[in-house]
């Protein structure tokens, strides 16, 4: 299926290659470079490229292109999903999935790739299994290894490979047994010129960090599970239990993982926590325009809206901007034409405002469109959908674990049209 | 010290020296750059050292070189020496190196093969598996037979992980040598029958790569695959679902039959009833829409799209919309598929219309795909919302996107008559847009719309005629010119004037514009020759000397048609008809129309072209093929693994996985659904009555560890019975009636089957239990010996909940109990099968047989001959294997054959009845060969019987397992001596 993999950085250097079948020459990447050139923007490189003898399927993650070479029919999502899993694994092992991290750990990367794919077909992609086969690098371990000559590579088959719960490794032991759940909700919205909501939905995830000894069997229940419109599960969750009782029952993997993702989409349920007042105009036959934006809180359930950042892609004709912010600071990049306003916390007493003049290229026609405003924000200790965890029970083990739930709401793809 | 000294290392060393010498000379001759060997000398030294840490360091540097794409092939001899290194990380890195360069250095690569062959026999399953992985990854054609053998062996390994690796190795071997196809199909067939989830995905992948056309191999495994699906790992799920989609298309009828067309004949035809197996597939895949893996969700979505009744397809929309929140590349692929689906099944995505709204931050390719979906979803009720949304898009800074939006508006206008005028007006307004691209695109779209009703829109045509002064985009100019020419009657005054202007600028126009100028001239000449005759002549003359031959040709052709001359032929009369014929309005349709003839989710669908290796999605059959091919004969299977009866009806028991804790037992994955119906056990022989009386005195109480009524093989006279049988309708005391032996062969080894007593009628208080070794593979675990047990209730009360409990086993031994028998009526007999892994020893397996009232201690002790299963090999293979098993592993004994045991038939008969072995063909006629493998460890057992003059013969047994060998010699001699 997957024939070869090339990792390419933004300046077009192939810094890693791995072949699972016969070697494919690096020159196959020329087709990719060609497409990349044509696309101008990295975001627009087609994920699937057809070449005379191969197909190239690629993803772009953390400034790296993962380009895989395919020789025959295969579901493209299969490859894409796998490549993302590879990037996730690097992230998991090295803390970041960057060119430097990969280059510094090239041997581990190679060992991982060797285990993850056999003859182009995925073999072991569960993080718990991989970690038993190849231990992640730590400073202590690398020192010890260099002295004792012991290795990072396990020599027994990970228990997960054979059991019917491949996501959990056996023999987990902790002195402090803890289970943390982060309920993270993101609001995706499009707000139109007049301030009314064109589209809004909540995308939620529950990320877990579970450090429990032995084989704990957990069940997590919600106060209001019917809120969840569409849910996707980690394989550990027993689907039947959810279907019948709306309880998440599972034997968790060890460590960090995403338990579920969900969506709350009926529109009237979605509270929009901020509003934006805007006045952006470009004068005809003049090389200037006006920019005036105010952000205020709305329906925030008594919580503070913080870490507010606004980014705007200004039209090409904009040369510079002379603005004053009543709160926070702004930057304008005249090359990319991106205006960023780091607002910080919103206090209802004094609404943050950014106002001033826009300098346009003289002689250029007045821009047709007013730019959209992209807003980011965070609200701590609140799940905007109202989802609440009721209780967490543990079976199968005798100790008493420490449990914690944290809620947070963020802006997802939150866009205000002007 | 970590490495085995290799016999050939010395020779290589010598070779290196001479090489060094010659290269050194070269360098002295003026080669300034250090040759490759020189650069890597330090690495070679490190590899040759006896410190593991140095070797590891060297291998790490070498792997880093490979990763960067640098050539490290010259290090091959130095690296390959370390293939047997004890340090596991060094070994693994050597494997990485070997797989990378073996193809280039085939001869040297062969030196490593023996290490892997040794690894294949290692007791550690990870080492067996990785040896097979590397061996099968070395692309050296000469080792094809070795690979084949290794795969075959691994396919019946006790570890499912090794079997999975075997499945992975199949496509590797196939790509190396496609002549092995037939043999590989046999292995695939065998692995398809495997019941562990670990193997299922990998073997289906092998099936898809090697023999996707052999749909017949799937029949018997279909229901099992459906039921295992939920527990298979994600990647396997994708492959299985895609394969089952194709399978279902060949085996079931379409659930969406065309009702209207066949309304008349409907009465005659049987109403459509969905095959329960079809339903099973739909039901068992549905929960996977909730998978976190986008590829799995997509696979289920395409399965529903291609297989589900119309009313049920809707469920996939929600899941697909969820995927839109994922990474850009996932979005891209999903949107392509949604675009195709939304043409056929618009209703399904309508509730999610707003999820396809476009943000200014979306990349252009995503914007355009979303636009495509929005256009497909447009209908009379939502068009006003969509058009309002489009209005926002038209003002975008992304001009490619704006152009696509204008096209989309055009498509909405053609499809929905109600909004045609609104759209047209909107587009006309765009004609005064500042951006030329926008104007040009609008012109092109307006042209197409006007063609639908030109008469009402002469104003627009006039407006557009004026644009020729300003607009420079060739396509737009060409469109305007074509419009004016086509509808010149509607703009009689303007048209000649436009032609005049165009004649002036003709030489500077683009080719497509020139062609349209000629067209315009021709049409005007035909309708209004007075005003345009000279202009036309002028244009045609210019065109005659144009650089482009298309234009020259066109001019020549048109001149002949329209300008009447003496020579001009009959066509001249029809010139007007030719040029001014009513032209059908173009249909603006989606480029995704009919793309669903490709299987959705496939690469071919995405590219809209058949990719290499694409398997066509077959059309539904008109008549359903025989559904009974999927029926699985239920042997007394353990816990109902894979027995789903004809109902197709295992309620989707999946997703209750994980409840079983860390159990490694493959059976626990597949909880029983229906208890397997009692099946008649193949007949077998019965113990002579005399023996029964002998043992009657024994009571079976608490002396659990003494083999109670186990009947050792040494009891003579038992197999003497020439036609032994187990009466099938055993009941009461009638059980001892000898009956003729049934004809069907009972086991691959064709031996007569003996029966042993487990619990005598007297000791069991009316319950009598007998068992025999059926010599059939035990379903679900190749390492277990299948023991058929026949239980007869000779009491006059019902016996309830018969089951096995408290097995007392030596370490390593395992028992797979038979499913509990709930009730056994008086006089009835039940047959069940249990599996015992004896760990290649003749130690008895002790356990209790429980009823609702009593416990009986019983034990089963296998004759040594039952601890093995036949293997089939060629004479050469036999000799080769025998050559490896000499010395301690060889046991030879002389014997004298009795009178009646000298014929071929008798000898074979006696040997195969004493041991479960397979006959190996033999060239010499006074020699007999047999081969088998022990059940647990898979060690070979080779038997040779050489008949010398007359009665004298020599028996040789070769086996690693010396104890087994010795016992076997004894047993065979005893069998032959009778």
Automatic annotation (TrEMBL), chain A:
InterPro entries per UniProt: Adaptor_comp_med_subunit (IPR050431), AP2_Mu_C_sf (IPR036168), AP_mu_sigma_su (IPR022775), Clathrin_mu (IPR001392), Clathrin_mu_CS (IPR018240), Longin-like_dom_sf (IPR011012), MHD (IPR028565)
MF terms (GO), sorted A to Z: small GTPase binding
Bilayer topology annotation: Peripheral membrane protein
One Pfam family per UniProt: Clat_adaptor_s
Ranges in coiled-coil conformation: none
Keywords: Cytoplasmic vesicle, Golgi apparatus, Membrane, Protein transport, Transport
Keyword Cell cycle included in the entry's annotation: no
GO cellular component, one term: clathrin adaptor complex
Presence of the UniProt keyword Protein transport in the record: yes
Gene Ontology process terms (BP): anterograde synaptic vesicle transport; intracellular protein transport; postsynaptic neurotransmitter receptor internalization
Domain MHD: 176-417
Compartmental location: Golgi apparatus; Cytoplasmic vesicle membrane
Main location: Golgi
Similarity comment text for this entry: Belongs to the adaptor complexes medium subunit family.
Role, per record: Part of the AP-3 complex, an adaptor-related complex which is not clathrin-associated. The complex is associated with the Golgi region as well as more peripheral structures. It facilitates the budding of vesicles from the Golgi membrane and may be directly involved in trafficking to lysosomes.
PANTHER family registered for this protein in UniProt: AP COMPLEX SUBUNIT MU
Protein name: AP-3 complex subunit mu-1
Organism (species): Strigops habroptila (Kakapo)
Lineage of the species this protein comes from: Eukaryota, Metazoa, Chordata, Craniata, Vertebrata
Protein's gene: AP3M1
UniProtKB/TrEMBL annotation, chain B:
Superkingdom of the source species: Eukaryota
Compositional bias ranges of the Polar residues kind: 659-668
Main localization of the protein described in the UniProt heading: membrane
GO biological process: intracellular protein transport; vesicle-mediated transport
GO cellular component, as recorded: AP-3 adaptor complex; clathrin-coated vesicle membrane; Golgi apparatus
Annotated AP-3 complex subunit beta C-terminal domain residues: 659-843
InterPro entries, sorted: AP3_beta (IPR026740), AP3B1/2_C (IPR056314), AP3B_C (IPR029390), AP_beta (IPR026739), ARM-like (IPR011989), ARM-type_fold (IPR016024), Clathrin/coatomer_adapt-like_N (IPR002553)
Location of region: Disordered: 643-683
Cell compartment(s), UniProt: Cytoplasmic vesicle, Clathrin-coated vesicle membrane; Golgi apparatus
Membrane disposition: Peripheral membrane protein
Transmembrane segments: none
SMART domains: AP3B1_C (SM01355)
Record key words, sorted: Cytoplasmic vesicle, Golgi apparatus, Membrane, Phosphoprotein, Protein transport, Transport
Function comment: Subunit of non-clathrin- and clathrin-associated adaptor protein complex 3 (AP-3) that plays a role in protein sorting in the late-Golgi/trans-Golgi network (TGN) and/or endosomes. The AP complexes mediate both the recruitment of clathrin to membranes and the recognition of sorting signals within the cytosolic tails of transmembrane cargo molecules. AP-3 appears to be involved in the sorting of a subset of transmembrane proteins targeted to lysosomes and lysosome-related organelles.
Family, per entry: Belongs to the adaptor complexes large subunit family.
Name of the featured protein: AP-3 complex subunit beta
